[in-house]
Amino acid sequence: MRIIGLTGGIGSGKTAFSALLRARGAAVINADRLARDVVAPGSPGLAEIVSTFGEEVLDASGGLDRKRMAARVFSDRDARVKLEKIVHPLVRAAMADEVQRLSEAGTPLVLYDVPLLYEAGRERDVDAVVVVWAPHEAQLARLAARDGLSAAEAEARMAAQLPLDEKARRADFVVVNDGTLEDLAAKADALLSDLSRNLPKGSPKRY
C-alpha cells in the first residue's frame, strides 16, 4: 500500500481539496480528526494537556476548548511545542492503527491529510507529498472569512507554519488553488489519475 501525504498552509484550501478526493472514492486519513479523537473527553491525551496547561483550556462541558487552546499556542511558541509533544505521538499511534486497518482491507492507496506534515517531520513516513498551494492574499482572505481573524492574527498563524512556498518547493505534486471549486475538482481528478499510475518522483508536478 502506498501512503501519500497531503498538506498545505492554513487557508490554502487543503480541507476542500481533501473532501473532493474523498468524494471520488479515495481513502483519506485526516490527522485533524485523529488529533480530536486522541484528546476527547476522558482520554489520557486530554488529561496530559490539562496537567500541562491547566483547567482553563477546558470548555463548559469538560472538553478541550480548541479556540482558546489555538489562541494560546499560536501566540506562544513554547506552548505550541509543549502541545505538539503531547499530541503528535498519540496521532502517530492512531495513524498506524488506521493504516493497518486499510492495509488489511486491501486498500492500494491512502492519502494522509496532515496540516503540519513538514513541521512534524512526517514527510519521511510517506511515499510522496501533495501540497495544496494558494496565493498569500487568498490565504489571508479565507482566514478572515472562515475564522473572523484580523490581518495581524491571520499573519501570526501563517507565520507559525513553514512558508507555503517552501512546502511547494519540497513537494512531489503541487495543486494550485487559485480558481473556482470546479477548477479544484478537475485537479482532484487529474491528481488521482496520476497517483494511480504511480508516477516517479522528480520535479514537482503542478496542477
What does this structure look like?
- The protein contains nine helices and six strands.
- It is of the alpha/beta class and 207 residues long.
- The radius of gyration is 17 Å and the shape is globular.
Arithmetic mean pLDDT: 88
Secondary structure: number of strands: 6
Separation of the first and last Cα atoms: 24 Å
| Sequence of secondary-structure elements | EHEHHHHEEHHHEHE
Quick summary of this structure?
The protein has 207 residues and is of the alpha/beta class. 53% of the residues lie in helices and 14% in strands. Helix 9 links the parallel strand 5 (173-176) and strand 6 (205-206).
Structural key phrases:
alpha/beta; six-stranded parallel β-sheet; 9 helices; 207 residues
Write the layout of secondary structure elements.
Blueprint: E1 2-8, H1 14-23, E2 27-30, H2 31-38, H3 44-53, H4 66-74, H5 77-104, E3 109-113, E4 128-133, H6 136-147, H7 151-159, H8 164-170, E5 173-176, H9 181-196, E6 205-206
Parallel strand pairs: 1-3, 1-4, 2-3, 4-5, 5-6
Helix pairs in contact: 1-9, 2-5, 3-5
